[in-house]
């Protein structure tokens, strides 16, 4: 799949809103802003926050950790209905099973549904709605959403901090959006390829093999008169390893050190007969 230009990749992220209903802890709001920005989202909406200065509170700013622009651009509204006014598909994130209300799905399916909605519906806007830290969303609040979604957490202890739950939701949404666009999930090195990491040429590998064979003779690991199958096995090993230029240079350095050590040992205690690599008696 061909990757879209960066501006086109970013576009769907601008149509996703994260809504926190009646947040009471400024630190959670700051942490939520940070969680959103790390996943490429920026639209945060607070519904009737418990503190009037929630977005400017020192704890919010501290835990935003560089995502203060998300806090500065955040929207504050009195009701969830106001927060959902421009939204065309809203997911109520909850840990408790709901016997009445919208159909339920897990957060991964919700992210896929959100991606499809954004891709195929004109002027689409998606929202993820999170409830209060203590009690979550009420049935009436959930009734304003089109879908209920759950994070498949440990059933014995499914309670998640609201900012942690938002982080997981933002991650799933990001992955679904990038995957659909053919975007990469790997970090960009933003530079020219390192020539050292490129595959070594056949010529360089053969030169390494000759150097390696000489080194093995000097350290008496290879008997040139009775090589058996050692050399072809080494050759197959190097060929199979698909060595990079840096790896060839590293192994050539090992060869040089081995030959130096072998020559030093020979100089200190020359053996009788043929010297390694010299061919002289």
Automatic annotation (TrEMBL):
Molecular function terms from GO: methyltransferase activity
Compartments reported by the entry: Cytoplasm
Residue ranges occupied by any tRNA/rRNA methyltransferase SpoU type domain in the UniProt entry: 16-170
Alphabetical UniProt keywords: Cytoplasm, Methyltransferase, S-adenosyl-L-methionine, Transferase, tRNA processing
Entries under InterPro entries matching the protein: Alpha/beta_knot_MTases, RNA_MeTrfase_TrmJ/LasT, SpoU_MeTrfase, tRNA_m1G_MTases_N
Highest rank taxon of the organism: Bacteria
Entries under SUPFAM superfamilies matching the protein: alpha/beta knot
Enzyme class (EC, first level): transferase
GO biological process entries: methylation
This enzyme's EC code(s): 2.1.1.200
Region Disordered, residue ranges: 184-204
Keyword Transit peptide: no
Catalysed reactions, semicolon-separated: cytidine(32) in tRNA + S-adenosyl-L-methionine = 2'-O-methylcytidine(32) in tRNA + S-adenosyl-L-homocysteine + H(+); uridine(32) in tRNA + S-adenosyl-L-methionine = 2'-O-methyluridine(32) in tRNA + S-adenosyl-L-homocysteine + H(+)
Gene3D superfamilies attached to this UniProt entry: 1.10.8.590, 3.40.1280.10
Similarity field: Belongs to the class IV-like SAM-binding methyltransferase superfamily. RNA methyltransferase TrmH family.
Described function: Catalyzes the formation of 2'O-methylated cytidine (Cm32) or 2'O-methylated uridine (Um32) at position 32 in tRNA.
Subunit details: Homodimer.
Name the record gives this protein: tRNA (cytidine/uridine-2'-O-)-methyltransferase TrmJ
């Amino acid at each position: 799949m061909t990757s879209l230009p960066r501006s086109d990749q970013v576009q769907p992220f601008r149509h996703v809103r994260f809504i926190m209903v009646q947040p009471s802890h400024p630190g959670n709001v700051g942490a939520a802003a940070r969680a959103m920005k790390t996943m490429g989202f920026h639209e945060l909406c607070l519904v009737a926050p418990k503190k009037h200065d929630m977005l400017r509170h020192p704890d919010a700013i501290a835990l935003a950790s560089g995502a203060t622009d998300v806090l500065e651009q955040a929207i504050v509204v009195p009701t969830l209905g106001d927060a959902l006014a421009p939204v065309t598909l809203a997911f109520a994130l909850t840990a408790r099973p709901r016997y009445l209300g919208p159909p339920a799905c897990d957060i991964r399916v919700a992210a896929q549904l959100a991606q499809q909605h954004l891709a195929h519906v004109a002027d689409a806007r998606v929202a993820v709605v999170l409830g209060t830290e203590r009690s979550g969303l009420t049935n009436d609040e959930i009734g304003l959403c089109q879908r209920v979604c759950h994070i498949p957490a440990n059933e014995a202890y499914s309670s998640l901090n609201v900012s942690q739950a938002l982080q997981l939701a933002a991650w799933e949404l990001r992955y679904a959006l990038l995957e659909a666009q053919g975007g990469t999930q790997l970090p960009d090195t933003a530079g020219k390829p390192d020539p050292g990491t490129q595959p070594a040429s056949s010529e360089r590998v053969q030169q390494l093999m000759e150097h390696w064979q000489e080194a093995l003779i000097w350290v008496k690991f290879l008997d040139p008169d009775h090589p058996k199958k050692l050399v072809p096995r080494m050759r197959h090993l190097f060929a199979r390893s698909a060595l990079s230029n840096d790896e060839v240079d590293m192994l050539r350095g090992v060869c040089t050190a081995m030959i130096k050590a072998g020559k030093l040992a020979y100089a200190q205690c020359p053996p009788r007969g043929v010297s390694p690599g010299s061919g002289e008696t």
